[in-house]
Amino acid sequence: xxxxxxxxxxxxxxxxxxxxxxxxxxxxxxxxxxxxxxxxxxxxxxxxxxxxxxxxxxxxxxxxxxxxxxxxxxxxxxxxxxxxxxxxxxxxxxxxxxxxxxxxxxxxxxxxxxxxxxxxxxxxxxxxxxxxxxxxxxxxxxxxxxxxxxxxxxxxxxxxxxxxxxxxxxxxxxxxxxxxxxxxxxxxxxxxxxxxxxxxxxxxxxxxxxxxxxxxxxxxxxxxxxxxxxxxxxxxxxxxxxxxxxxxxxxxxxxx
Amino acid sequence: xxxxxxxxxxxxxxxxxxxxxxxxxxxxxxxxxxxxxxxxxxxxxxxxxxxxxxxxxxxxxxxxxxxxxxxxxxxxxxxxxxxxxxxxxxxxxxxxxxxxxxxxxxxxxxxxxxxxxxxxxxxxxxxxxxxxxxxxxxxxxxxxxxxxxxxxxxxxxxxxxxxxxxxxxxxxxxxxxxxxxxxxxxxxxxxxxxxxxxxxxxxxxxxxxxxxxxxxxxxxxxxxxxxxxxxxxxxxxxxxxxxxxxxxxxxxxxxxxxxxxxxxxxxxxxxxxxxxxxxxxxxxxxxxxxxxxxxxxxxxxxxxxxxxxxxxxxxxxxxxxxxxxxxxxxxxxxxxxxxxxxxxxxxxxxxxxxxxxxxxxxxxxxxxxxxxxxxxxxxxxxxxxxxxxxxxxxxxxxxxxxxxxxxxxxxxxxxxxxxx
Lengths: 256, 420
Ligand code: SF4
What we know:
Chain A is an alpha/beta fold and about 260 residues long. Chain A has nine helices and eight strands. A five-stranded mixed sheet of chain A has the order 4-5-6-7-8, covered by helices on one side. A three-stranded parallel sheet of chain A has the order 2-1-3, with helices on one face. In chain A, α1 (about 10-25) packs across α4. Chain B is α/β, with parallel strands linked by helices and about 425 residues long. Chain B has 16 helices and ten strands.
């Protein structure tokens, strides 16, 4: 078994491609130096990240792959799934080896898998855009906790930045304990102390942290949600299909 | 804002809930400096009610007072219900507060008719003018055009709204006359035609001057109530397909009749709204818009109503075994699209992928083909000759309805836990 070790950067992964072709050694496994390593590797290679070589690999991909395919590769990369490295490695290799590239061959399991993961990421981005709930704080900042499966803040930031350009907001990923703060001019990274975080994870700002009207508007929204429901048509299964339970924690209309 | 608003909201949202349209698609307003909101990106639903429907827009009535007496409506003047009205300012403020919290994509404003159509339209206009001009709101606005309102008011509304709708409600003119004596098709079609004309003119203008004002950029829609009258699916789909031929028309919504006014002899006494029929109509509508089906292929003189047990595409396929089997590895896209169990997405994937080599059954499955339905209609090297022609349409119909019956039963047994 051939094992590559790299530094967990995208450029590092592209460097692995370059290394593999140059050495004619193709990995069965790609790990970072800090990952738990298998005992049974016959060959171990530590691949140094080389920006120059990485960009050469990337430009040959640019010639073969459409923008959509390259975007899908980036989605796989940010997914951080355990299969990421090997899937991208095989995907890149198949495209480099095929005269026209294989991005449209959905009969190929790797091509289809890249598309599936990209779809999962875009589905989650869509759900965040749908289910984020801002609460107005006493100091006029609009705060929204999220708990996504993947690291979605960089994916959705532009949506909220253009939509809520004039109101300062914080989008906070309570799973990863980091957030983005938009002060109406720039976006900055922020993080809260463990004590604050415990409270934030509950999804509700407490008493004096809220603006004067916040409670009332939340109550009005819950009332709206109740009134707009047609009882003769109840279909809780359908509701859950569209709005999975894992998002309910931070949904104002479903809180008491 | 205060607690009084809560009561108004509860009455007026409750009265607005039977309007099924809620979509926020078909327009693109990029952010403007100093304004709040955009409509770029996806058609976003922000929540789903326990009836499984999407909340995208703040769907609300300005008032539930009404001078008319339509048999199918809770707001009709002969009903003894609590009446109330928002002031335009209250409604604009609520919309902004909801939007800032990311509860909604925008406003869907409707109203009962107060005094006369023009007065009502003027009040509604006040709300949207406040929103756009004073609050600099740049999100989605869908407005109901009140039949009978003057062209001038509709023209003004069209410059503020993304979408406008006039509801036909009843699929045939004679039955509309029966249930809504004060309304007529000509009164409903007049604003529809005017909106279309405005849209076309604005599109022409914008070809010459990019800055020309937009008029209802997301087009118009309408709603038909299903099952309140004996109108057939053929009448309904023929009407819908005629509407879709108009360049401004984006959506027809079908709303299974809910008996809100019991004891009116002009209306059928239904135990439950005809949800399966409504669902089949949406499927048929989908076939017309995305699968290049004609209304007459879906329903005709011999089959005036949709088959409730199978979806309309399956229904068509079973009536036309001579089209099948289709070879997925060689047939044109349009034919593949007609195979039950293959949707637009998987049809596209099949057509691009087969250039690399023949697709096997497991590959088709992975691509998203529902083999349970498709197996009777396709050929592939590996497939035995067990298509709809050998097995007969009757046999296939039994096979596919068996499975669906079980599913439907599971849905009905689902416990109801919402509400009091
Ligand atoms: S005009 Fe509209 S609100 Fe008035 S009774 Fe008829 S359907 Fe209801």
